[in-house]
Design goal:
With 430 residues, the protein is of the alpha+beta class. The protein folds into 2 domains: 90 residues, Nucleic acid-binding proteins (OB fold (Dihydrolipoamide Acetyltransferase, E2P), Beta Barrel); 296 residues, 2-Layer Sandwich (BirA Bifunctional Protein, domain 2). It is 28% helix and 28% strand. The strands form 4 sheets. Strands 7-11-12-19-18-17-14-13 form an 8-stranded mixed sheet. A 5-stranded mixed β-barrel has the order 2-3-4-6-5. The chain has a 3-stranded antiparallel sheet with strand order 8-10-9, with no helix packed on it. A hairpin with a 2-residue loop joins strand 9 and strand 10. It starts with a strand and ends in a 21-residue tail after the last helix. The structure holds adenosine-5'-triphosphate. The site of adenosine-5'-triphosphate (ATP) has 15 residues, from strand 12, strand 18, strand 19 and helix 12.
Length: 430
């Protein structure tokens, strides 16, 4: 018989449902258990004399989280979840679970976060955690859908790199034959080099790595970065236009495809109107100062300042907004300068930076000058600079943290909730 998910079964069906035992109740001649699969739970009811004796006996042997396969009739049952129950003809105990569960899967007893991540595959049996992962997977699907529709070419650039965009201190070294190499902290240099290839609009999705010893709710050592790079732009406005269209496209997709998950998590997605609010860095500093926050022009926005700005913007009806025209000194060498300020932008959502990018410097001489000013040795970046010597169009792009976006869509307390097996300074296993 073909397997069905519990939610797909209808009264009158003969069905096979596989899953985990969520709860057992034994009333002597009447035994029940709840069978959980990824779509929900169904009650299985075994009455002595009405089900085969062997099946009745097996129900007595069941324990929580055993893996079972049940075949039987689906019948009407007013008291049961969903108004139906299964009456088993066949019950196979596929795999027993040890009885002392290391964590309480359904969080009735709050398990420590560390312990939960030690047993993450068990933790994720909780439907709410599965819902988070479905929202993430749907977000990724719609991001991909956007780039396909908008004519971007998906590319894959090397994860093992000789040099990073932001310097060695934030990179994980790896032994590469007889040399030292690094895990990429971003595809920045490569996606820019591709602007000299004529591909015009490229995007990439993949893991990137950061070696800073962060202990915050928005940093991990390995995360999914969505990057795009676009040539022949007039200014960073073109980049913001692409980015905001991608965001709204994926938010709409999640709101449409994840209704059940959002309901389960008690969340509603507000789709922002386009264009998103743009606010200059100057204005941000002015606003923050006015509200008593300590900040000087030229400082990068720290977590607390971003949060405060988020509160102020939310009051004005903006969950999403761009901060534009950052001071050149807080932006990396590859961002185009514009006097004292730069063409660098950030996209913030509910007071957290979600993406960072802008227009890049495409003139090789200027690029080299800025590198030197920032204390970098252009010779170490010859492979990158070469790409600017044979016809490099104006271009720009962004790096976008998918997990941060999902964290904020669902108002989760920590980015790690969106990651199956997070990597942090303290965690490498499992
Ligand atoms: P922050 O200032 O918040 O540390 P950043 O300026 O280092 O971020 P970028 O290097 O510009 O960030 O990376 C682009 C995007 O990647 C960020 O906007 C964010 O969404 C995401 N990101 C960066 N670092 C991390 C991290 N350690 N963990 C998770 N996501 C990150």
């Amino acid at each position: 018989m073909q397997r069905k998910y519990s939610s797909e079964t209808r009264i009158g069906d003969q069905a096979q449902v596989n899953g985990w035992v969520a709860k057992v109740r034994d009333l002597g001649g009447l035994k029940f258990f709840l069978l959980r699969d990824r779509t929900g739970e169904i009650q299985v009811t075994a009455k002595k004399g009405s089900v085969p004796e062997g099946v009745f006996k097996k129900v007595s042997e069941l324990g929580r989280e055993d893996c079972v396969s049940v075949t039987g009739n689906v019948e009407k049952a007013g008291q049961a979840p969903g108004g139906k129950e299964m009456v088993p003809k066949v019950l196979e105990i596929v795999a027993k679970s040890e009885t002392q569960l290391p964590i309480d899967v359904f969080g009735k007893i709050e398990s420590g976060k560390d312990k939960r991540f030690d047993f993450r595959w068990l933790d994720v049996r909780d439907p709410k955690l599965q819902a988070i992962l479905k929202v993430k997977s749907t977000t990724l699907k719609h991001i991909r859908g956007y780039f396909e529709k908008a004519g971007f070419v998906e590319v894959q650039t090397p994860v093992i790199q000789a040099a990073g965009a932001e310097g060695g201190a934030t990179m994980f070294p790896v032994v590469y034959y007889e040399r030292e190499a690094f895990l990429r902290q971003s595809p920045q240099l490569y996606k820019q080099m591709l602007m000299a290839s004529g591909l015009d609009k490229v995007w990439e999705i993949g893991q990137v790595f950061r070696a800073e010893k962060f202990h915050t709710s928005r940093h991990v050592s390995e995360f999914i970065s969505v990057d795009f790079e676009q040539a022949w732009i007039e200014s960073e406005d073109d980049i913001m236009n692409t980015l905001e269209s991608m965001v709204v496209h994926s938010l709409k997709g999640v709101a449409k495809d994840c209704k059940d998950e959002l309901e389960m998590l008690g969340k509603k997605i507000t789709i922002p109107e386009l264009p998103l609010k743009r606010i200059t860095y100057d204005k941000v500093v002015e606003k923050l100062k006015k509200s008593g926050v300590a900040i000087e022009w030229g400082d990068d926005l720290e977590d607390a300042q971003e949060k405060k700005l988020g509160e102020m913007m939310r009051k004005k009806g903006h969950e999403w907004y761009f901060v534009t025209k950052y001071p050149s000194k807080v932006k990396p060498f590859y961002i185009m300068l514009d006097g004292k300020v730069s063409r660098g932008i950030d996209l913030d959502y509910k007071g957290m930076e979600i993406a960072s990018g802008g227009q890049r410097e495409h003139r090789v001489e200027v690029l080299k000058k800025v590198m030197k000013r920032k204390g970098m040795d252009p010779h170490k970046f010859e492979f990158y600079l070469d790409a600017f010597r044979y016809g490099m169009p104006p271009h720009g792009g962004i790096g976008f943290g998918v997990e941060r976006m999902v964290e904020k869509i669902l108002d989760l307390p920590d980015i790690k909730e969106v990651i199956l097996f997070p990597r942090t300074p303290d965690r490498l296993v499992p």
